[in-house]
Amino acid sequence: MANKEFPYTGFTSLAVHAGHEQDPNYAHLTPIYASSTFVYDSAEQGMRRFSKQEEGYIYSRWGNPTFTEAEKKIAAMECFGVATTNGDPLQVKALLHASGMAAITTLFISNLKAGDKILSHFSLYGGSQEMMDKILPGLGIEAVIVDLRDLNKAEEALKADPKIRMVYLETPANPTVQCVDIAELTQLAKKYNKLVACDNTFATPYLQQPFRYGVDFIIHSTTKFLNGHGTAVGGVLLGRDIEFMNNRAAKTYQLLGGNSNPFDAFLLINGMRTLEIRMERHCHNATEIANYLEVHKAVAKVNYTGLSSHPDHYLAHKQMRHPGAIMSIELKGGLQAGIQMMDRLQLCTRTVSLGTCDTLLCHPASMTHYGVPKAQREQYGITDGLIRMSIGIENVQDILMDLEQSLKGL
Ligand SMILES: *Cc1c(COP(=O)(O)O)cnc(C)c1O
Predict the structure, then answer these.
(1) Where in the chain are all domains bearing CATH 3.40.640.10?
(2) Backbone phi, then psi, for 238, in 5-degree steps?
(3) Three-class SS of residue 388?
(4) Which end of the chain has fewer CB atoms < 10 Å from its terminal CB, N or C?
């Protein structure tokens, strides 16, 4: 925390500079510290470092200077303009992980024990859902799943089950873009003295800052918009209880071994510098594309929180700066139309994942969910003609031209 506290007035000034410290060799950028271990001047110094009397790096599973810059930058972005209840600028601590799932694992294992429960919503990232279904029950930790868009149901669950220790939110959710109300749910959780965690991957700290509403923890898959270029899988856990983060969370992180690596951290630092300008462009393009597709004759429905037809339109507007860059469309022509559209794409990329500079399209019925029986797929809202889109930062007229030619005659 030796970093000078410059009073950044703009998000990008902060995103460019925050977390950076002068390199001892005067390198402009923080180098990729590709070193598993760190050395001591003397046995006494080793003693001081191990007993935490002196700050310093020891072993890269515990921390590394390249991770530190990425961690401080994300922490600064999540706290930008956010004050504590005393009016002081909020400070949080971040731990950089190998993946979003590794960060979620540290979150759960450091906070929960056998007998505890998590309250969450039914629409979550598949990996988080599977973790609650397949891994946590073996540790004696159960998930209570209710529709968290209904605050009465959320309160009933909190009242009925004192074993609930954490409320776990993800908004907008992957991939449905369903939103839940962070402010209302956090207030409710705090009334019953529960911890609140929020997966902020889809929004990023530029669009939405959950610490503003009093959540205890934020997690990100940095793989998506934070890295922004699709060059590395990564994740981060941020917490406002610094004492907990430095002790229980750090110990769990060190022993689970879910740390990042210096090369991926370096890529992440560089990606995050342009977060604001990328998100502005992503969201601007997404709005134009949603408006175009909403009236296209091959399209039955556009699912985008930026459209007033979306049930979470007002909630997204309340807690997010812009409605994000993820949407899905439903083609009138079903499976065949979906396959044809995917085959004809020339500019847009056919792949899963999201949050990169290029526009990504995925047709779950013929890709991720091929082989899942239709009736089962449709339970998750994955109909034959559903196309998922992560809108990129290309010039919007080119994306529109590619969509137009790929939808022609469908
Ligand atoms: C991708 C994703 C994750 C998992 O992150 P990985 O980096 O793939 O481990 C978690 N939450 C959300 C919302 C995601 O989109």
Answers:
(1) 11-272
(2) -120, 140
(3) strand
(4) N
Is the Cα torsion angle 53, 72, 107, 222 positive or negative in sign? negative
Determine what percent of the chain falls in helix, strand and coil, rounding each to the nearest 5: 40, 15, 45
Specify whether the CB–CB gap between 216 and 90 falls below 8 A.
Answer: no
Site of tokens 């990232």: 125
Beta carbon of 205 within 6 Å of any ligand 1 atom: no
Cβ–Cβ < 8 Å for 282, 325: yes
Tell me which residue has tokens 């971040």.
Answer: 94
Ranges of CATH 3.90.1150.10 domains, the chain: 276-407
Residue 376 pLDDT: 85
pLDDT of residue 4: 53
Pocket test for ligand 1, best of 224, 267, 351 (most atoms within 8 A of CB): 224
CB atoms within 10 A of CB 64: 25
Centre of ligand 1 from the C-alpha of residue 101, in Å: 6
Residue nearest to atom 8 of ligand 1 (CA): 100
Would residue 81 be called left, alpha or beta, if left means φ above 0 and alpha means ψ between -120 and 50 degrees? Answer: left
Q: Give CA–CA dist 177/259, Å, rounded.
A: 29
Q: What is the CATH number of domain 276-407?
A: 3.90.1150.10
Angle at 109 between CA 106 and CA 111, to 5 degrees: 100
Cβ–ligand 1 distance for 233 under 6 Å, the answer yes
Integer Cα distance of 213 and 46 in angstroms: 41
Q: How far apart are CA 246 and CA 21, in angstroms?
A: 21
How confident is the chain (410 residues) per 10-residue block, as mean pLDDT?
70 97 95 97 94 94 98 98 94 98 98 98 94 98 97 98 98 94 98 98 98 98 98 98 98 98 98 98 98 98 97 97 97 97 97 96 91 85 94 98 97
Pocket lining: 200 vs ligand 1, CB cutoff 6 Å: no
Q: Are 132 and 162 in contact (CB under 8 A)?
A: no
Distance of alpha carbon 213 from alpha carbon 183, whole angstroms: 5
Contact of 257 with 306, CB cutoff 8 Å: no
Q: What is the pTM of this model?
A: 0.96
CATH T-level assignment (fold) for domain 11-272: Aspartate Aminotransferase; domain 2 (3.40.640)
107 conformational bin, left if phi > 0, alpha if psi -120 to 50, beta if neither: alpha
